[in-house]
């Protein structure tokens, strides 16, 4: 009798405790937390799956173009919400705020590596109507299978009146990639920057052997340039005509702007104004935005300019000097006189073809 009463009491206490705990659990919304946990884990896994390296199915030749990752910089490279977002009003109720989102590019810098593409992209972000991701996204060649939504998510937030600009100089190397870009947006604006082919070779050489310790032997420039039959660097680095013709074959000419690194290096403002007009933007660039840094030997950002703090969120620059990192502006190798003559003689007819194609002549010191 006593035993059964104890058992009954025990059962009642157990049932009451069970329901009590259930109520507490619900009221604390623990279930919702664990659901949220599951959701977050799922999203992370999905993101990880998307981040996995996808082999290049387009067979795009590797031009050994440099990733920005190895820059030695001390600038603030974090995006803040808004990136280049400069709302006209501080009032969040204003319409502008609700328009802020990540948008696909309307303009691309598609080539060529070692021709000032980083400096061009970086300086262009000074325009209040241009936003640009800090890294080369390489969507149309190496990350194509990740899909457009992934591509969009690599872009900084922007407002409706801002243009998103992406630069991946290796896009120009493959007609398959150009076709993909056309299918993505047949009206996209394309910017191409070229450089004296001999200087470009020197720049690539300096980049390729950047990690060889001081005093250690580097391969001879001439041997490196000639390579073996499968890797003739002259064909690869001098073939502007072939690659630009492929762009002209795919896109209307008025969507393509060809610039010269030499013009940009010596007078960034005039080149940037040309880009501004090409993109149909209101004039915003001014000479006060830059200064020539003698030590660096290049134009750099003027840190005093009111736009500089905004730009710092989108670019990798040295926040002390406003210059690009040490990976830009490297020392170039000397060229033996006879080999220089040989190069000039070989490349000159290619240049003439190029000038005819783009409809303008460029003054290249090595060919004067
Ligand atoms: N303002 C300014 N600051 C620094 N560097 C400048 C600038 N303007 C043009 N350049 C030249 O840009 C060259 C690098 O070109 P890219 O940025 O296209 O190289 S990469 O393909 O993205 O690696 C780089 O080549 P190297 O001199 O061989 O390093 C520079 O000469």
Question: Layout of SSEs?
Answer:
Layout (H helix, E strand, L loop, with lengths): L1 H26 L2 H22 L43 H4 L2 E2 L4 E5 L5 H8 L5 E2 L16 H6 L3 E2 L4 E5 L7 H10 L4 E6 L2 H12 L12 H6 L6 H6 L1 H11 L5 E5 H6 L1 H11 L11 E4 L4 E4 L6 H5 L24 H22 L10
Parallel strand pairs: 2-5, 2-6, 3-5, 6-7
Antiparallel strand pairs: 1-4, 8-9
The structure holds 3'-phosphate-adenosine-5'-phosphate sulfate.
CATH architecture of the domain at 68-210 and 244-329: 3-Layer(aba) Sandwich
> Mean pLDDT across all residues, rounded?
80
Radius of gyration: 28 Å
According to DSSP, the number of beta strands is: 9
- Overall helicity: 40-55%
Biggest sheet features: 5 strands, parallel
**Spatial gap, N to C terminus:** 115 Å
Number of helices: 14
**CATH domain class name of the domain at 68-210 and 244-329:** Alpha Beta
Describe what is shown at a glance:
By secondary structure, the protein is α/β, with parallel strands linked by helices.
Structural features:
Rossmann fold, 9 strands, alpha/beta, transmembrane, P-loop_NTPase, Sulfotransferase domain-containing protein, 42% helix, 5-stranded parallel sheet, binds 3'-phosphate-adenosine-5'-phosphate sulfate, 368 residues
